[in-house]
Prior knowledge:
Blueprint: E1 4-9, H1 11-20, E2 22-27, H2 38-52, H3 56-69, E3 70-78, H4 84-90, E4 97-102, H5 103-107, E5 121-124, H6 129-135, H7 137-150, H8 163-176, E6 189-197, E7 202-206, E8 209-217, E9 225-230, H9 238-247, E10 254-257
Parallel strand pairs: 9-10
Antiparallel strand pairs: 1-4, 2-3, 2-8, 3-6, 4-9, 5-6, 7-8
Helix pairs in contact: 2-7, 7-8
Amino acid sequence: MNNSLYHYCSVESFHAIISGKSIRLSDLSTSNDSQEGTYGISLLCKELQKKYGYQEHPLKVIMEIIANQVKGGGFCMSTQSDSLSQWRGYASDGHGFAIGFNKSMLESQFKRPNVDLNKTNLIQIDYEETSQTALSNSTCLKFRDFHQATKDKKLTLENYKSKEFIELACSIYQFIYSVKNRGFIEENEWRLFTCLFSEKSNVRPSFKGLVSFYELPLIENQNLIADVWIGPKNLSSKKVVQAFLKSNGFENARVSISDISYR
């Protein structure tokens, strides 16, 4: 059974991950998927109305305030090692790479002592509405408790820096970035997720503007990267890729060339 999770990326990102031995959990609202998060927000609004009678307005007001202080950061992966839709959408239209991380070792990143992991979680995307509804229960409860505690008060900046608000913000973001419409089920997506706080986040340039991210150092283990796939339009030779991996401590990674005919 394949225990790898594949991150599709450009040549530049591949080089940065391997040579820098770190990965970046970037603001998911700037991802290539234009519907990222919106499906989850709609579902959350629906469940809040059904469970507690809320209309959309309270959630939208709180989401606007959250967005000014906190972002949802993610590092997206798939169980699929050589997928045309992934190559086209996330790896420079087939010119990039797919990095296969050993899932068990990746999870061990979060069990290391004395490392600030910014509450990073490895989550599997849920595509089924029935289980998504069950997943929303704890977030809906946190929203109700916060709204009831503050609805008769004049909200101040302190309210939105409280432990309760931060927990609510992270709960909302983790939920909306853990669910997708069933039409995306072929992606078989997993992602590393964290909350990005304005004062703690790094920033990188992109064609969409400045993007917030959290940098997660990788453990020093030659088996962390199980395999690497060279994209169907990528002209890199296996020997060059193998030498690059070996020079950076990942000599056990198997290198394969995409079987897909896509030029």
